[in-house]
Amino acid sequence: MEREELFQKVAEIISEKLNIPIEDIDEDSHLIEDLGADSLDAFDLVMVFEDEFGIKLEDAEIENLLTVKDIVDLLSKKLAEQE
């Protein structure tokens, strides 16, 4: 999956889950400070990403997910490992 396509899918999921306009989301968006996510939102997002992309994210990896770019980078790495 191309990075831009991956970003678009991640942005769609975040937009839907956090009920915010997709155009308000970019790679530099901070999940908590910019997008208003809380820890429960973050947990829900991780579950959706795991289901959507068929991957497992470890707790240590999840702790480092602060921005949309962090999510896209990690998902990109995980998906590449599956190929």
Automatic annotation (TrEMBL):
PANTHER family, A to Z: ACYL CARRIER PROTEIN, CARRIER DOMAIN-CONTAINING PROTEIN
Name used for this protein in its record: Acyl carrier protein
Highest rank taxon of the organism: Bacteria
O-(pantetheine 4'-phosphoryl)serine, modified sites: S39
Pathway: Lipid metabolism; fatty acid biosynthesis
Database matches in SUPFAM superfamilies: ACP-like
Ranges of residues in domain Carrier: 1-79
Main location: cytoplasm
Locations listed in the record: Cytoplasm
PROSITE patterns for this protein: CARRIER
Signal peptide limits: none
A single cellular component GO annotation: cytosol
MF-aspect GO terms: acyl binding; acyl carrier activity
PTM notes: 4'-phosphopantetheine is transferred from CoA to a specific serine of apo-ACP by AcpS. This modification is essential for activity because fatty acids are bound in thioester linkage to the sulfhydryl of the prosthetic group.
Key word Lipid metabolism present: yes
